[in-house]
Amino acid sequence: xxxxxxxxxxxxxxxxxxxxxxxxxxxxxxxxxxxxxxxxxxxxxxxxxxxxxxxxxxxxxxxxxxxxxxxxxxxxxxxxxxxxxxxxxxxxxxxxxxxxxxxxxxxxxxxxxxxxxxxxxxxxxxxxxxxxxxxxxxxxxxxxxxxxxxxxxxxxxxxxx
Length: 161
Known about the structure:
It is a single chain. With 161 residues, the chain is α+β, with helices and mostly antiparallel strands. It has one domain. It is built from three helices and four strands. It has a four-stranded antiparallel beta sheet with strand order 1-2-3-4, covered by helices on one side. The radius of gyration is 30 Å and the shape is elongated.
């Protein structure tokens, strides 16, 4: 048995038609706009995750500081302790910090050497930077938002409040 096709001249042959160039360009533009929106949202979420990780590291630093004070009856040398250096290394890794400064850490650590310390860092998700939204921990157990463009409380009273 062989198959064959019989052409009928009366048969309506439908014309197969593709997409026009304009239609294709519109679809590509829409996909581009949607992908841009998604990428912007992903970067914001990534920065929020980094901020959460930094906050966790700072809370661990606060715990280390309080333990250091119990062991030594002061905060002298807290920033040089191996536990603190591990925390600072994690913060540098999370934030991508490559700058210098005291103890090679992002933010500001102030320590009066005896009974108080305060550490402040700028969070990544605070844009525009004019918001001055910092995260602060201190030896009183405070861990929270610190809205001040200067570190006056942290440098003078060694507290976030």
